[in-house]
Design goal:
Rossmann fold, 2 domains, 18% strand
Length: 387
């Protein structure tokens, strides 16, 4: 029987891992992720979770331990943030290249210098080419639900890729919200028992894992990862739909979510918790007879280009918000990804919320007004202090 708890985003992530009956947890504490690791350690210590909790000396070691655990066929979970995710960088490629269905919670936090513990999405955006599926959530309930879905997606035999579930640091990790925890048995029936068809580290069926990729085979291995990422689109849609039937909650079609988009000529595109603020602004403007829409990107990798193009077919102005910056191009990563597939639209880019800078309702209204008058391809930084 489900129950509702008032918990933080990090607690929601830990509860999800417990509900999925993970076999191995390996993580290193880093603000604002630490409370997730502490909660999981408590679950293991008090017997609520029958898992190996591997203590390590760094995030690089944590993801390396997860690679080894997953290679044996264990259901594996980790969590990190910011500099910790950056330290994992080289091993992230190993996890995807070895087709290991590890699930990670990343608490989005700015990268230094200067040292900053507050939120933006530069850390996970910087890992966009590592071969990990990336999901960005709007609230704590979606954090829990997405991690549950992530195991079912990652372990699908047509995918077998690691999944990174991203939630905004402090905005979600340390804010309490009502979160419905599904029945443990129902969750475990939903995700199923992980029985890898590959003979992972079985001495009776020896295979080679992570071998040297000589030029005659390396390119094909990367193509296989791309094909798996292509397959993931349908699997994400199917899992989201199955989850809705089982637990009564769904998140758009699993890839994107639209809000008041039908009659809107100007549509904002964004990811993460900022979408809640955008929805509130849209509702307030709608009361005054003004129609604006939101396209929330839930799954950033794989980037669902066809779904995005279809959702925006009636829009004239597309305002793309980025909590990251590609230095030297003066664009955000989401904008650069989308501009090429929206050539028939006027697109403008807005750099927002870097290092935890507040994004207020009046900022969203400023973006809407600017997008209607701006030149195609413009970039505007929102909320800069006057210099």
């Amino acid at each position: 029987m489900s129950k509702v708890k008032i918990i933080t985003g990090t607690s929601a992530a830990a509860e999800a891992a417990r509900l999925c009956d993970v076999d191995v947890v390996s993580a290193y504490p880093i603000t604002p992720q630490t409370t997730c690791v502490e909660k999981l350690a408590d679950f293991v210590a008090n017997g609520e979770l029958d898992a190996e909790f591997i203590k390590v000396e760094s995030e690089h070691s944590a993801i390396s331990a997860c690679v080894g655990a997953s290679a044996t066929g264990a259901r594996t979970f980790t969590a990190t943030s910011s500099q910790g995710l950056a330290l994992m960088h080289e091993v992230l490629f190993i996890a995807s290249g070895m087709r290991l269905p590890i699930v990670m919670m990343n608490a989005n936090r700015a990268l230094s210098a200067p040292i900053n513990i507050w939120n933006d999405q530069q850390d996970s955006i910087s890992q966009r080419d590592t071969g990990w599926i990336q999901i960005y959530v709007e609230d704590n309930q979606e954090t829990l639900d997405s991690i549950i879905q992530a195991f079912k997606i990652a372990e699908n035999e047509n995918v077998l890729l690691p999944v990174m579930v991203n939630l905004d640091g402090f905005i979600l990790t340390h804010t309490v919200e009502p979160v419905e925890l599904p029945d443990e048995e129902e969750v475990r029936n939903f995700v199923g028992i992980y029985n890898p068809k590959h003979a992972y580290l079985d001495p009776d069926k020896p295979i080679t894992q992570g071998p040297v990729g000589v030029p005659s085979c390396y390119m094909e291995s990367k193509h296989d990862v791309q094909l798996a990422m292509d397959n993931a689109e349908k699997v994400i849609i199917d899992v989201n739909e199955e989850f809705a039937k089982k637990f009564g909650r769904k998140y758009g079609n699993g890839l994107i979510e639209t809000y008041n988009i039908e009659n809107a000529e100007t549509v904002i595109v964004a990811m993460g918790s900022i979408c809640g603020t955008i929805k509130e602004v849209i509702d307030n403007l709608k009361q005054n007879g003004k129609e604006y829409g939101l396209l929330r990107i839930r799954t950033y990798r794989p980037l669902p280009t066809n779904h995005i193009r279809e959702a925006l077919k009636n829009a004239k102005n597309v305002a793309i918000l980025d909590k990251n910056i590609t230095i030297g191009l003066n664009k955000g990563a989401l904008y650069t990804d989308l501009a090429g597939i929206l050539k028939d639209k006027k697109t403008t880019n807005y750099i927002v919320g870097l290092g935890g800078r507040d994004i207020k309702p009046e900022d969203i209204e400023e973006i809407i007004k600017h997008a209607e008058k701006a030149e195609d391809g413009e970039t505007k930084w929102i909320g800069l202090n006057k210099q």
